[in-house]
Amino acid sequence: MTDNNTPVYRFSEAPIWNLLWEYYEEEGLRAWSNDQVPQYVTSNPMIGDAYAEMIFGFLQDRANQGFGSEPVYIVELGAGAGRLAYHVIHELRELIDYAGIDVPNFCYVMTDLAMNNVTAWQQHPALQSFIAEGIVDFARFNAVEDTELHLAVSGKVIKQGDLKQPVLVVANYFFDGIPQDLIYIGDGKVHEVDVAVQYPESDGVLKASERISQIQLDYTYRHAPEYEQDDYPYRSVIAMYQEHMEDSHILFPAAAFTCLDRLNALSEAGFLLITADKGDHLMEKWQFAEPPELILHGSFSFTANYHAMQQVYEQRGAEVLFPTQHYSSINIGCILSLEKPAKYPNMRLAYRRSVERFGPDEFFSLKLWVDQHLDSIGLQQILSFWRLGGYDAEFFIQTTKQISSLMPEATDDEKEDILSGIETMWSSYYVMEHQHYDLALDIGLVLFEMDMYEQSKRFLEISVAGEKEEVVSTVYYCLAISCFELDQIEEGAQYLRKLLEVEPDHEEALALISHFESME
């Protein structure tokens, strides 16, 4: 309970939202390090491939309709660590090259409210080639207020009506973290649910994440007849809730609607939204819903109301796609707010293949099971799942111990497939800032165990070059042996000497260096 001096706010205007934005500005890309804020489920190569398939289908459809001369702008809202954008662009380029067909050019615009993130993306090594090609750009964008996109690289300002092609919007784990209204349906009436918020004030010592972890919400209710008026913009959806709901708290995405309306205004041809979130599109999921609680993960989020979004846009003539099955971890949907959505068969088929039949949600459910059984699965199963997940680096890092244990029985074919997968993985690896995985080290050691000395040496040298602390003696030993196997004797001896600087009593190194010195 709150006392009479505690201010009460509309839920969408509560200070928790400013605190959330303060968190992301304060943390920058550190927010996604070590999954402080979840990123894997919405940013792994598998979901990137699924999005690329849908975007490629959309580009094909635009070309088939005769709209191939103007570029398509893909605007990602809240691009976070940048990993999803990288995987989508990487795979989209490969699809276009592989197909060998003419489609409109594209520019992928990564946006965020936190300027620190925008600056960090511009400097990320993995994005530099995309920047040089002109297929990626960046913008600070306030989803609640902004009406224009100011592109950081090209300097272009995209204003209302500037785009000839539809704007393609990507929103992953986005709508659950922007302001939402909160209403309560009871006795056929609509009530506004206001909130009193208690949390420590900023004292220059407590970080935003620490203050967020101490938030307490206290709800109060008042009859809100404005939702029941005919001129309320989303009256038909509210009427549906009044008719079918009872004792139900409903988060309502008014801010999401206005954000999409402003993005839609940039183009003469409408928009396509691809979105993934903890979001329910089935009305039954909102029936008898309790007051929302903060879902804490460094920052916080709430459930997104995809049901209201589907109803509103279908009434406006859009086609809305959501899976027929219930989701487990992540719900992926598309809104085709376009003239004649049925004229986009390639995009819709891509959704069917990449989401409806088997998609990122099913993949993540399987991965949770695989993670629990890594020590009991075979090499073929590891290879199959790794391939299914788009040769994901995080899965490889998780499985190196099991791969090593299975190596003595591995066939030459399996070793060749491991090497091929490693090359694919490395070519599309996106380094997460503030995450200190030494992927090159893990690769080098696995290849060493497979007696692939030339390839092992390459990756171990990458690891040594990037190591900011002391290199472990095992790395120098593997490098020395690799050099000897490749008849690079002097270089091998140099690595032995470096090893002995780190570990002077290393018996194998002492024996080898003595042997080579006696031969001189």
Task: Provide key terms for this protein.
single chain; 520 residues; alpha/beta; Rossmann fold; Serine Threonine Protein Phosphatase 5, Tetratricopeptide repeat; 3 domains; five-stranded antiparallel β-sheet; 20 helices; transferase; NDUFAF7; SAM-dependent_MTases_sf; methyltransferase activity; TPR repeat
Describe this structure in words.
One of its GO terms (molecular function) is methyltransferase activity. TPR repeats lie at residues 473-506. The protein is of the alpha/beta class and 520 residues long. It folds into 3 domains: 8-14 and 180-249, no CATH class; 20-178 and 256-364, Rossmann fold; 377-518, Serine Threonine Protein Phosphatase 5, Tetratricopeptide repeat (Alpha Horseshoe), CATH 1.25.40. 45% of the residues lie in helices and 17% in strands. The chain has 20 helices and 18 strands. The strands form 5 sheets. Strands 4-3-2-7-12-18-17 form a 7-stranded mixed β-sheet, with helices on both faces. Helix 3 packs antiparallel against helix 11 (345-357) and helix 17 (453-466) packs antiparallel against helix 18. The longest helix has 20 residues, at 45-64. The radius of gyration is 27 Å and the shape is globular.
